[in-house]
Write a structure and sequence with these properties.
Layout (H helix, E strand, L loop, with lengths): L4 H9 L10 H14 L11 H10 L2 H5 L5 H8 L6 H6 L11 H14 L23 H24 L4 H25 L26 H13 L3 H4 L20 H14 L2 H9 L8 H31 L5 H19 L1
């Protein structure tokens, strides 16, 4: 954990309202945990108060996009927040072998769904106004695509810095990095909310031999109501931010993308927590009636937030450490310098 950053973040949060889990305040916290986990050698421009606030604010941006009435954005954005893993197995696909490329996976899933038309519920058009029910979600692709954007943006910044970029070009490249760091944090935060990995996202559906809640407001209660009721604030969690680590990215020929596999493992870990989460509710540990009764439920959700911060920080660090110069951009900058020198020499 970056201990030098924690006091700054805590000071900025001293007047913050109670955390609403994975509502806006919770997504902010995941991004702030990630910032606190960065090592001292990470680029200093992301540590300024203005940049830290921007990164935290942007954690909520993909949810703000969901407020639109424009169908094009509703469809494209809605699917990026989840992946219902049960849908994969229902049509004979395996999470360990699906394509790391979004559109290849879309084709895989479409073919599998067509081959197993009786394995998934029929789509009710009245509940499919954004035309998304045909798909299981694209959350891991949203994460890895944003990772690739961030890596590219670090590449541009490095090239501008090393090959004669102007101060404005460098500042704009830094602003791009801050934007992508903030927005990608939302999807990483979603990946550590167990209900974003399952068909049981709004109460248990289908066979229910253990009698778990079928309340359609269960997801909203976990995302906001419970954590607000127990009064968890960022200062309770931020000092426990976990240090970033460099993730493996080498992918031997003929194997699946290693980073995508890491993200899918995160989703599988969270999916394994779906039933324990419902069991906590069944045991009365997610009501928020008293600190003692709520302690286990609160600790459970804090752990997910900490995992989100750790993975996000590690993705940021890995993107930066794997940065290579943009050879095309470098050539253009060097040509610009040569042309400018020629003009000056006349």
């Amino acid at each position: 954990m970056n201990l030098r950053l924690v006091p700054l973040l805590l000071a900025a949060l001293c007047a913050a309202p109670a955390l609403h889990a994975w509502d806006y305040a919770g997504h902010r916290l995941v991004n702030q945990l990630a910032l606190a986990g960065l090592p001292p050698e990470f680029p200093a421009f992301v540590r300024t108060p203005q940049a830290a606030e921007r990164i935290a604010f942007l954690a909520g941006e993909p949810d703000r996009w969901r407020n639109t009435t424009d169908l094009a954005l509703r469809q494209a954005n809605s699917l990026d927040h989840y992946l219902d893993l049960e849908q994969l197995t229902a049509v004979g696909l395996e999470a360990a072998t699906i394509s790391p490329l979004r559109y290849e996976f879309a084709a895989q899933f479409a073919a599998a769904r067509a081959a197993h038309p009786d394995k998934l519920p029929a789509i009710d058009p009245a509940k499919d106004t954004d035309r998304t029910r045909e798909w299981p979600g694209f959350l891991p692709w949203a994460i890895t695509e944003n990772y690739a954007r961030l890596k590219s943006e670090f590449s541009s910044l490095k090239t501008f810095q090393d090959s004669g970029g102007t101060p404005d070009e460098i500042a704009n490249a830094q602003a791009n990095i801050i934007y992508t760091m903030g927005v990608m944090g939302h999807y990483v935060g979603d990946s550590t909310q167990p209900l974003h990995t399952t068909m049981h996202n709004n109460g248990w559906v289908g066979d229910n031999p253990k009698g778990y809640t079928t309340w359609s407001g269960f997801h909203a209660w976990i995302d906001g109501g419970f954590m607000a009721k127990v009064g968890l604030v960022p200062a309770d969690v931020l000092p426990r931010a976990r240090p970033a680590r460099t993730l493996p990215t080498a992918t031997p020929p003929g194997t699946r993308d290693t980073l995508f596999s890491t993200v899918m493992s995160q989703l599988a870990t969270q999916h394994a927590q779906v039933e324990p989460l419902y069991a906590l509710d069944q045991a009365g540990k997610l009501k928020g009636d008293s600190p003692a009764a709520s302690a286990e439920g609160k600790a459970f959700l804090e752990e997910q937030l900490l995992r989100g911060g750790e993975l996000l920080s590690s993705l940021w660090l890995t993107a930066w450490r794997n940065t290579q110069p943009d050879t095309y951009l470098r050539a253009q900058l060097l040509r610009r310098q040569t042309e400018a020198a020629g003009v000056r020499g006349k």
